[in-house]
């Protein structure tokens, strides 16, 4: 029987009693949708899926994103996050894929730089290092709820400009080609997302460059203060990966980041599917 056990009061729940390789019944899919809306992050242990099973499972929740223009695997439904190169050995620290993994170590919402950003992300562990390489989540609903009412009211009407080229070039100037920059112009997103019935959430992260209509210094001060506030330990769940783990998270309710690991000595390979808007 499908069981949903909260990991704590704010975010995260463990889901047992289903086998994703056998598909989902409509009742199971509905229970998972409700659990995502409520808990923001679901942990499904012992689901050693392959790519096809992960895509089938993900499509229960909506239309999948295709990997953005200019990225490895462009046009496919799968994003592979790994430090293992095409030849099966560890990639150099300067390889694009390793730099992209480093970009994921900043708090972010997936695809917030797209006009239609990611709703859900589904990530499965295929190879994990012996230490580090956690994925951490910050509850943006809990953070918003903890702000003073006057600040909540001030934030509600604001829009942030999310700029992929800017955020990636902060990690390494060589990480974005001119073609990618042209394909990903900045897009406005609300600073507060109100569509979740369980409460409004802050929406910022690494791609949030500026507040529309504000100057750069004011923008950076506000964004950095709110991200620091929202990522205090009491708002965060840190997931230590085990073989066969799958996580599903609501990008409208949490930011996430990867934690470092010994990337020049250990292997890590994760596969993500992403449900759009
Ligand atoms: C992602 C991501 C972090 C990680 O899959 O979108 O940011 O821990 N992953 O690999
Ligand atoms: Mn991500």
What would your notes on this structure say?
The protein has 277 residues and is an alpha+beta fold. It has one domain: Double-stranded beta-helix (4-Layer Sandwich), CATH 3.60.130.10. It is 26% helix and 25% strand. It has helices at residues 26-39, 51-58, 96-103, 140-145, 149-155, 164-171, 178-183, 216-230, and strands spanning 3-6, 13-16, 41-44, 79-82, 118-127, 135-139, 159-162, 187-190, 192-193, 201-202, 208-211, 236-239, 246-250, 254-258, 269-276. The strands form 4 sheets. The protein has a 7-stranded mixed β-sheet, with helices on both faces. The chain is globular, with a radius of gyration of 18 Å. The two termini are 30 Å apart. The model has no long low-confidence stretch (mean pLDDT 95). Bound molecules: N-oxalylglycine (OGA) and manganese (II) ion. Manganese (II) ion binds next to loops.
């Amino acid at each position: 029987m499908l069981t949903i056990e909260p990991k704590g009061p704010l975010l995260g729940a463990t889901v047992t009693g289903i086998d994703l390789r056998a598909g989902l019944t409509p009742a199971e899919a509905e229970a998972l949708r409700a659990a995502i809306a409520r808990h923001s992050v679901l942990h499904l242990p012992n689901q050693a899926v392959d790519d096809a099973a992960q895509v089938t499972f993900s499509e229960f929740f909506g239309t999948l994103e295709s990997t953005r223009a200019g990225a490895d695997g462009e046009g496919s439904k799968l994003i592979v996050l790994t430090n293992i190169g095409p030849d099966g050995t560890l990639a150099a620290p300067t390889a694009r894929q390793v730099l992209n993994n480093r970009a994921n170590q900043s708090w972010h919402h997936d695809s917030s730089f797209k006009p239609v950003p990611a709703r859900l992300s589904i990530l499965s562990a295929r190879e994990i290092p012996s230490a580090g390489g956690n994925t951490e989540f910050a509850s943006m609903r809990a953070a918003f709820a903890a702000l003073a009412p006057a600040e909540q009211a001030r934030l509600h009407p604001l829009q942030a400009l999310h700029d992929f080229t800017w955020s990636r070039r902060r990690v390494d100037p060589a990480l974005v080609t001119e073609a990618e920059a042209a394909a990903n112009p900045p897009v406005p997103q609300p600073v507060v997302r109100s569509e979740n019935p369980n409460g409004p959430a802050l929406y910022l992260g690494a791609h949030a460059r500026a507040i529309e209509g504000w100057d750069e210094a004011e923008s950076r001060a506000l964004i950095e203060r709110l991200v620091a506030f929202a990522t205090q330990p009491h708002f965060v769940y840190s997931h230590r990966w085990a073989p066969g783990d799958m996580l599903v998270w609501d990008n409208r309710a949490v930011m996430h980041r990867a934690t470092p690991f010994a990337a020049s000595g250990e292997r890590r390979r994760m596969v993500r599917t992403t449900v759009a808007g």
